[in-house]
Automatic annotation (TrEMBL):
It comes from Pseudoduganella ginsengisoli. Residues 83-315 form the Thioesterase TesA-like domain. PANTHER family: S-ACYL FATTY ACID SYNTHASE THIOESTERASE, MEDIUM CHAIN (PTHR11487:SF0), THIOESTERASE (PTHR11487). Pfam families: Thioesterase. This is Alpha/beta fold hydrolase. Keywords: Hydrolase. GO terms for molecular function: hydrolase activity. The keyword Transferase does not apply. GO terms for biological process: lipid biosynthetic process. Belongs to the thioesterase family.
Length: 323
């Protein structure tokens, strides 16, 4: 108190943010009350902020749990988050077999679209922009690792759109892998699918489903609405891409084609080169449109190589930064 009194006599207050004693309340009890109220307000704000953060984290976690399926242990030593998007009519669990071969190199995360597998009771989405927004929000809950995206056929188009969205949001994508799909501004080979019979005939021509499944009317009755909705989703994805000016993403891009794929021929898949301003790698594997399922070893070898290139690029960036 002596010090405070001396300061007051000199015309300065040691306690109040307002410098002169004349502007200060000069009442110790009132000053203590003011300080206590200020501390109480700050503490209350911190508690409310913490509660909001916890609620937001819980909401983000619940949203991610709806959209993402994790395969294999979430090792702290995994080099990257490999996020996979399925082809039309398919679900996330087709990527479960990738977890063990890629262990230590990537943590495999697959996007589960509504209307299939464990989300079969939910309505399918046919708007690509809304779907990409939902997936981008779910990816925010992933562990902080380098992000690599992969998609086959319809999944490739969605992965490309998702990459563009994430880059606009400032989220770094270390690599994009696409297979069995032409780039968004290329002419497509798919015929008009105006009826269920036309869709079935097209699926038979792709040779992507067992004949016994295609001949099972009950299974087809369950699956065709999902496939039909995915065709609309893919059409919308191309329409959105063609409505905007072509954009080169600054992300390394790998494009894989099947040697006998008439839907996405190798020479047209190679045009993905025009979609990136970064490094491009193209390869052709034996098989038709569904060569990733028919050539799993060769496919995984290409995925591993792309992951290694992406992680090597990060190491090079770090070396350049610290040198």
């Amino acid at each position: 108190m002596a010090r405070s009194s001396a300061a007051t006599r000199r015309g300065w207050c040691w306690s109040c943010p307002r410098k002169t004693a004349a502007a200060c309340c000069q009442a110790p009890v009132r000053m203590r009350t003011w300080r206590a109220n200020a501390c109480r307000t700050a503490y209350s704000s911190a508690v409310n902020r913490s509660r909001c953060q916890r609620r937001r984290a819980m909401a983000d976690g619940a949203h991610a749990a709806r959209w993402l399926r994790h395969f294999g242990p979430s090792s702290a030593h995994a080099g990257a988050n490999l996020v996979c998007l399925p082809h039309a009519g398919a679900g996330a669990f087709q990527f479960a077999s990738w977890a063990r071969p890629l262990a230590g190199l990537a943590h495999v995360v697959a996007v589960q679209l509504p209307g299939r597998e464990d989300r079969v009771g939910e309505p399918c989405m046919t708007g690509s922009a809304a779907l990409v927004e939902q997936v981008a929000a779910a990816l925010a809950a992933l562990p902080p690792r380098p992000l690599v995206l992969y998609g086959h056929s319809m999944g490739a188009s969605l992965a490309h759109a998702l990459t563009q969205r994430l880059r606009r949001d400032g989220v770094p994508v270390r690599a994009l892998l696409v297979s069995g799909q032409v780039p968004p501004h290329a002419t497509r080979s798919r015929p008009p699918l105006d009826t269920p019979d036309a869709l079935l005939a097209w699926l038979r021509a792709l040779d992507g489903m067992p004949a016994a499944v295609l001949a099972n009317d009950e299974l087809m009755a369950l699956w065709l609405p999902t496939a039909w909705a995915d065709m609309q989703l893919l059409d919308d994805c191309f329409a959105v891409a063609n409505a905007a000016a072509p954009v080169r993403i600054d992300v390394p891009l790998t494009a894989l084609a099947g040697s006998g794929d008439w839907l996405a021929p190798p020479e047209r898949v190679a045009r993905w080169r025009d979609c990136t301003s970064a490094a491009f790698h193209g390869a052709t594997l034996e098989g038709g449109h569904f060569f990733p399922q028919n050539q799993p070893a060769a496919m995984l070898a290409e995925v591993r190589a792309a992951l290694l290139r992406a992680l090597a690029g990060i190491t090079q960036l770090a070396d350049n930064y610290y040198s």
